[in-house]
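FORM 7B: Structural annotation worksheet

SECTION A. Query
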Amino acid sequence: MIETPPLVDQSCHGVLRTELGLGTFEAQLIHSAGPPAAGTTFFDTQTGFAVRRWCPPLLGLEPHAAPARYLARRRELGPAESARRLLRGSGVAAYLVDTGTTGTGDLTGPKDMALAADAEAFETVRLELLAEQVADTSGTVAAFLANLAEAVHHAAAGAAAFSCATGPADGPLLDPDPPGPGEVRGAAGRWLAGRSRGGALRDPVLLRHLLWSAVASGLPLQLHTGTGDPSALTGFVRATAGPGTRLVLLGGYPHHRHAARLAEAFPHVYADAGAGLGRTGARAAAVLAELLELAPFGKLLFSSGGRRLPELHAVGALVFREALARVLGGWVAEGSWSWRDANRVAAMVAAGNARRVYRLDRP
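SECTION B. Predicted structure
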């Protein structure tokens, strides 16, 4: 039997405090630009089936409960009690909560997540949002850049990690090197001038400046690997090898194999071993096995990638545990691994690696 310690969810967001109807709930299940096709439902996805498999028992129902029955039970309990049961039933001992999701004031922050889950919670600071907050209180380019440097320094003292939603694999950030001071001042001036028109931070020069500011802080940096060419990550990874700041590659599925190769090749690079599993549901063991084929076991970290729905946090954790047990248990059964080694690796990926990378146990 594969035994794992309480998990460390190294990348997630808060959960909604509000009650959700069927359509609203369903819209949160997967990343989609629109509603499901006429006559269909997003419950008919691997994520939807995983929710129906793992979450109903945590709310007192049988597995595979129909969506309407499940949501009726959720309404009976209320959003707070449902979230409490789902989070506490997932076996997670610590959360790293990315607080950078904008326009969602009804999401729980780290303190509320810790209370609901009866767990530890640490903040991951989103670089883009940090810059936007600084811009709103800085009147000039010089003030903005000085205040931004101070904000990064202050955040590094209290957070567990930085994160950036626009990864180096996305087209505008293909240049891996830090921009020069003149480039940064020019980009800052252009961006600040557009803030009155709702200018969220998309400028590639400022984003590169933020990434390199985070690297200089020494705090671990979580990179959302983007939807572009995953091989474009290699340039930034190679450029940051000198400072040695730990890079954690998130959201790699279906490019998870490339993330695993980078974790293998570069000492300062780590790969996420969880966020894609909830999306793949019944196929999660196959995805996890591919990661374990390539990356050193000390370079893989679990996350749920959950946001908004506590179901996604719970499914991410429970599917990960089952997939890990299935993969490692299978290797033990065929004689390739010993039980002792399997349990040791399971503990590393489930929690130990994250506690080491983010220094969660430091006094």
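SECTION C. Observations
The chain has two domains: 7-16+79-357, 20-77. The two ends are 33 Å apart (CA to CA).

SECTION D. Sign-off
Analyst initials: ____
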